Amino acid sequence: VFIWVFSFIWTFPPIIGWSSYTLSPIGTTCEPNWYSGELKDHSYIIALFTTCFIMPLLLIFVSYGKLMTRLRKVANTQGRLGVARKPEKQVTRMVIVMI
């Protein structure tokens, strides 16, 4: 439900006048007016990019950073550094590949 509401929030502003939609170059879909020189179009694109790309990416980085910190802490408290290092390295590699 959240993703539907979030999508509606970001598709609705061009309908009420903040930016606009144009026909895509291939002519099959509509898209935000990427190439307009107007301030309202630029501000919408910047807000859209920040909210829909940068903020989720930062959330992913912070979450994975906390996960890796917690894994290291658990490995150190268990005292099995030699045994715990291999799974820790595998998880670290997996996190890097996923990002």
UniProtKB/TrEMBL annotation:
Membrane-protein topology: Multi-pass membrane protein
Annotated source species: Chiloscyllium punctatum (Brownbanded bambooshark)
Keyword annotations from UniProtKB, A to Z: G-protein coupled receptor, Membrane, Receptor, Transducer, Transmembrane, Transmembrane helix
Protein's name in the database: Vertebrate ancient long opsin
Molecular functions (GO terms): G protein-coupled receptor activity
UniProt-listed PROSITE patterns: G_PROTEIN_RECEP_F1_2
Residue stretches making up the G-protein coupled receptors family 1 profile domain: 1-99
Segments crossing the lipid bilayer: 44-64
Pfam families: 7tm_1
Domain of life: Eukaryota
InterPro entries on file: GPCR_opsins, GPCR_Rhodpsn, GPCR_Rhodpsn_7TM
Recorded GO CC terms: membrane
Compartments in which it is found: Membrane
Signal peptide as annotated in the record: none
